[in-house]
Amino acid sequence: MPPYDKYLQEILIDEQTLQKRVAELGAQISADYGEHDDLVLICILKGGVMFLVDLSRQIELPHEVDFLAVSSYGKGVRETTGNVRIDMDLGSNVTNRHVLIVEDIIDSGETLRFVMDVMLARHPASLKLCTLLNKPSRRRVNIPIDYVGFEIENKFVFGYGLDLDEKFRNLRFVGVVNLDALPK
Ligand code: IMP
Ligand code: MG
Q1: Count of domains observed in the chain
Q2: Would you call 37 a catalytic residue per the annotation?
Q3: pLDDT in tens, 79-101
Q4: Could you tell me if residue 4 is left (phi over 0), alpha (psi between -120 and 50 degrees) or otherwise beta?
Q5: What pTM does this model have?
Q6: Domain CATH code at residue 71
Q7: In the list 36, 37, 69, 181, which could disulfide-bond 45, CB 3.0-4.6 Å?
């Protein structure tokens, strides 16, 4: 039995559906930006990494990738407190460049609000946001999202970059966590 089995309530988005949607997003982004745009994809670590890799390969324009690691103070397994900090900053300067942030999931919106404010202070030529998953029912702060893979209900999910206590990011699908199987 695979080690994730007991935590999996159901597969929410299977591999084929994920890959098809990522290809659509890549095509849309390729159409929206010009080939001379100085485009840089910024992956929010760690959750965005699988999505970033697949999305980057679907974008038919020259672009760079960079990585930003953020975390929340006093964060429980299933809650964001709203106090977000940078754990690892970008390697590149984004001033006057076209920045597209690539995130796994937007829940309360606190993490992305913080990231957007940090990026805006660096004066990019443009700033857009692409998230694989969106949980609109949990939103606490309003943020404009330019590209969304899937809108999902308020369920805790894992796989395809999203972790369950730091594990199972490698799963090729997005699954709903069986909360009864978690240690209390
Ligand atoms: P927000 O700041 O509340 O929008 O939370 C966003 C962050 O919380 C994401 O980048 C994820 O790391 C994490 N997160 C939110 N919902 C889930 C989930 O269902 N599974 C795994 N991680 C999640
Ligand atoms: Mg994340």
Answers
A1: 1
A2: no
A3: 556 689 999 999 999 999 999 99
A4: alpha
A5: 0.94
A6: 3.40.50.2020
A7: 69
